[in-house]
Amino acid sequence: MGREVSESCIDSLLTEMVSTYCNRFYATKPELAARRIEAIGYQVGHQLSERYTMERPRFSDHLEAIKFICKDFWSEVFKKQIDNLKTNHRGTFVLQDNRFRWLARMSVDPPTENGGLPQDPSALAENEATQLMSMYLYFPCGIIRGALSNLGISCAVSADISSLPACSFVIRIKA
Amino acid sequence: MIVCVAVVGHQNNPLYIQSFTEADDALKLHHIVHCSLDVVDERVNNPKKSGPMLNETFLGLLYPTENYKVYGYLTNTKVKFILVTTDLDVKDADVRNFFRRFHAAYVDAVSNPFHVPGKKITSRTFADRVSSIVKSFGLSSTV
Amino acid sequence: MEDYAEELRSPPVSLIALVGCSEHHHMLSTYLHSEQPPINTLALPDFSKISLLLSDSHRNNNKSSSPTTDPLSSSSSGILKKDWFLKHRTRVPAVVAALFSSDHISGDPAQWLQVCTDLENLKNEIRSKNIKLAVVGVQSSSSAEISEDRMIALRKRAEVDSKFLVIFNPYDDSQLQQSLSRLGTVFAELATTYYRDEGRRIKTRVEKKNFNSPELHVRYCFKVAVYAEFRRDWAEALRFYEDAYHTLREMVGTTNRLPAIQRLVEIKAVAEQLYFKISTLLLHGAKVVEAVTWFRQHYVSYRRLVGAPEATFLHWEWMSKQFLVFAELLETSSKAFPSNFNPLLGTGERPLTEWEFQPAYYYQLAAHYLKEKRKYLELAVSISETDGEIDNGAESVTPSIYVGQFARLLEQGDTYVMQPLSDEEYTSYAISEGKRYQDSFEIIVLLKKSYESYNSLKALRMASLCGFQMAREHFAMGDFNNAKQLLDGVASLYRQEGWVTLLWDVLGYLQDCSRKSGTVKEFIEYSLEMAALPISSDTEVHSFRSKDVGPAGPASLSQREIIHNEVFGLVSGDASRAIAENNDDLKITGDSPLRLEIDLVSPLRSALLATVAFHEQIIKPGVPALITLSLLSHLPLTVNIDQLQIQFNQSECNFTIINSERTESARMTNDQQGPRVESAPSLALVTNKWLRLTYAVMSEQSGKLECIYVAAKMGPHFTICCRAESPASMDELPLWKFEDRVETFPTRDPALAFSGQKASQVEEPDPQVDLILDSAGPALVGESFMVPVTVASKGHAIFSGELKINLVDVRGGGLFSPREAEPSSMENHHVELLGVIGLDEEDESQVWADKITKIQQSFGLVSVPKLGNAESWSCNLEIKWHRPKPVMLFVSLGYFTDSNELTSPKVHVHKSLQIEGKNAIQISHIFMLPFRQDPLLLSTIKPSSDAGEPASLPLNGSSLLIISAKNCSEVPLQLQSISVEDDDDNERQFTLQHSGDLLGSAQLMPGEEFRKVFTVVPELKASKLKLGTVSLRWKRNLETNNHPSTVGWILTKHELPEIIVEISPLVVNLESPPYAILGEPFKYQVKIRNHTQLLQEVKFSLADSQSFLLSGSHSDTIFILPKSEHILSYKIVPLTSGLQQLPRVTVTSQRYLAEFQPSLAASSIFVFPCEPHFKKSDNGDKRKESVMAE
User: Fold this and answer.
1) Are residues B117 and A47, on separate chains, in Cβ contact within 8 Å?
2) C704 contacts C762 by C-beta, under 8 angstroms
3) Low complexity bias located where (chain C) (predicted)?
């Protein structure tokens, strides 16, 4: 298609979406906000998977579909592949991206109470940052879930930030 | 001549069905499209019968009825495209070409952010695009 | 397929004739028939019959050709003779076997002559027909011999090869088998030769093409193929059948032998037969793909040969028959298919698809063509009737001798004459024939086969289509029950998969079925479902002008509206609104009010959906709680509801909402409703818009409050009862969920739409009873500690109630959880609930005590007596601690305020209290030796420094045991006695004396210590001596503390450790005055006594002390005689006042290499600065105590 999208626009859009849902629409109900953000991601993933699977034969099993997500889908969306894929062969897959694009420009900004100590690696700041960050991960989780469910795999997706730009997504396929 | 095209969702529900005949057999075409889903199921559930075209999206001729030929296409996302034609002599390449263009039109239609996944496709643009694809069916393989 | 004659359906079997010796015919026939391949036999008893048989076929031939008045040659008057095949199978033998008895062969000349004549006649008969001859000599007895020359003569007469002259011996078993198999071979060979010759003869004609009509070509090819079949040469048979078939197809345009219609009929009939043979051959050869491909070509090449318009139905009938026959062929032969049959489908050169291998597909098409036939037949009938034609002479038309030809049979004198028909005559004959059949039944049978077959293939959609078509046939015939049954199944599939247009059609039939059978409820249900179908846009309308739409008409919004109006006209009883149609049967009256139920899976959910959401998950009893009731309808027009009844599981919460616009109709019935009636200004349900109503409900009863039903009353006798749904768990509406429309929430608040539930939990009413637990400080281990529990009503009367008492380890160890511990093992219960004691007057507590249901070690259940408001009741929990530890006491009171336990809510009050359990008294002990007397105890000298070393006491020396009891509690205690008691009843190995048995009542304030001194004299040397257990009896001092404790004395025990008793060889006694005075000398003696029978060498040394001046030997070695005593005597002058250490003496026994010193306490003395003046009273005692205390 050759259409291009500004990366910073996407970053800003994502930031704005999270802040709108978390601080304006559902300021008091973070779980409702998370649900809505995830739902947006779901639709995006659903539609993207429709496009990206267009010219390929059908997947014969779950692993093939997950591999598609790791390679082609991820490349299309993030211009890189997933770095590591693990599975327990019982329906759980862990997708590790060592430099997740949407987290790459985020820094751990300690909350104001702790202010004055930038780069403070205290556990408290880390914890709060993780909490804030998790809001941003509902969207990519929704994308993965939407793509997989469009491929006929109903699953639950959760994300986990180990150390900042790295991120792992856990896919649990519902029996 | 293509008399009917249809998009069928993964729950076998019709998402888009359009007939292109002047004759009053739309209901019959609906029945034909619906029945062809049985063949799709059969092909997908017994993949070994389809031999070399394992997992290919194009399913080929699904079944001939008295006056029609029914072709099928199954996307990775379990969406089925059904084509009903009255032509007796249809080239596989034409049908494949048709389905590829139809698929592209479908993807564009469902990528509309205002389209809710799983709902019927009501887009006017899609309908226009489909009818132009239908019109150019089999005219030349260069299209 | 059953229509075809047997000779067509099964492969042909060689036929031979047996003549003569009829007694053996049966055996031979049976044998030949069971041969592989089988041979059929014609058994002719004697030789005269053979001419009859053969001439019979001649005459038939002649006779059948005689009535033909066709000007052309007889050969071209038809294509195939109907009976030709049959003739060859049943009447024209390939071989005639002449059986001659050996008697006759070797008999007298007359007999021989007879044999020769018979043979000659036979030869004449069969020669013209090329029938082969075999001669069989039958031995008339087991021993009969046939002379060689007679045999040769016979062979010559018969002009047969010697191998075709067989001797048959029926009397010898082994020879019988042999000759039978010989006969079989011979006959088979001859038959093959015959059929080959015949085939070759005709084949030459085909090859030379020495005939002028294609009819002959077809006929000859057919014959060659049949002869090939006789020989089981399937390939050749197939080839010639195909040749015949193709020639025949070409004839369609060329021949003009018969009138057009009949010509086509004949060609199709022959084609059918040829095709049938081809399919059979292919399928028998398991060439399924070829058979299917062939069949496709077959029907494609004939499909367009419709023929003249007035006889079109004949074409469709024929087509239908082709499909039916092929379906049956496929069905019967499909059992023989290999299971891994795996054609490439849908692509390439042979684009065959799955269904084309299934009989179901062909049955379905057979039914389809039969429907066509019926359509055109009806047309033809109506034309012929309007033409006023009379079926004249149709009854005299019969099939002619040619396949596919018909002729009029005319009676001409004695004989019947076949007369050809004109096309008009033929058509009217065919129409009158056609009218005799009930095509509908046939169509249903075909569809049913297809339906069942598809179902077994799990092709549910194909099956549904067949079912739908069947149902339409039933419907057309007025068989509504069968139709409805089928349609319901079909509709459920379409509903499930969301095929609205198809569903509409099916529902239209269902609606009409119920209308015609007068079932109001179903009629309304189907109508409502149709009206609520998501058919909104008119875009689809134009494509449904179709003539084959169902009774519902085209699917469109306007049609939905019509149906809507019809239904609501019906239910309102308003005739003017009803569509002017003859539906007298459909009435809803007061006698038979109509109530529809809509549950969670009902298709009518889109007609009316009710959700109920409680605003709060937990509501208080007696406090109004808000619920939002939301109704949604997809009916095309606005529905006005007269009244809504909302029903809960707690029926007293039910209420009714009345549409105030429709009060007059609602009022009529509102008497029987629940007590609460609300009124709403309008209850209009607009299409696809939620009607949201918020009301308050109040429940008095704790537990679950759930909305069950919402019943909407519309019209005087019509109610729709909707099962209430929770917005949070509401399923999407079927069908509508695929529509591209804006989703709306049942409640305005999106959070409530996500989480709203139709049920809520009603809390218990707040208790109005106090439960007071009281405890005065910590409990003391061993006592029965009383915890008073008071139940004081302050608003609620307690009708009946019970207290649950639980003791739980504070540390959560669960040490006395009843689950973990054995109830019987006391060890596990460090704290024990002993019982419950009422504080009330004697008689009442007596009554009440019976009500104690259960007391376990850590759990108790006590019933509470009836209490009025503001009354109170109390009891004491008696708890005993065995170990000091804190315990949590949980007491919960559950009570009913009312006598009816079902209606009155049970109220619970919970209280808990942590109680410390403490040791009241700490008992300790010290052993002391007598003052200033130190025995040498060898064990203590040895360098073992173990702290836990038991104390050693000298044998027969009196030692002191001091037992002290300290009050560790915070309350004063009273001691009763302290004593040392034996553990067992053994003889005491020591004497124990003590200073009298206390104490009256010794008060022991908190922190105080009480001591008692015992003198112990061990009387037996023992390494371990048990001294027994200290028993201390005490209680709380009640004078100072008004505590509700038990009055009895509490026994606390303390076990004394074991001691070691040993003999001391040397005892050192220090003797000095009790005190000294500064500057005044005194005498200090160290007495060393040898208790042994040995001479003891003892070294001693005396350390200098700065406080004293000393005279005497400082150190020396002395010898002490056995059982004697050595005294070291010193004079000492104290130089310093105060408590001073005397110069310490160190004694070393050379024998035991043991050194010991008297203890520091023993060698101390108080030096007064001057002579003290003591009162002489009882100072001595006190002083002694104070010294001991140190």
Assistant:
1) yes
2) yes
3) 64-77
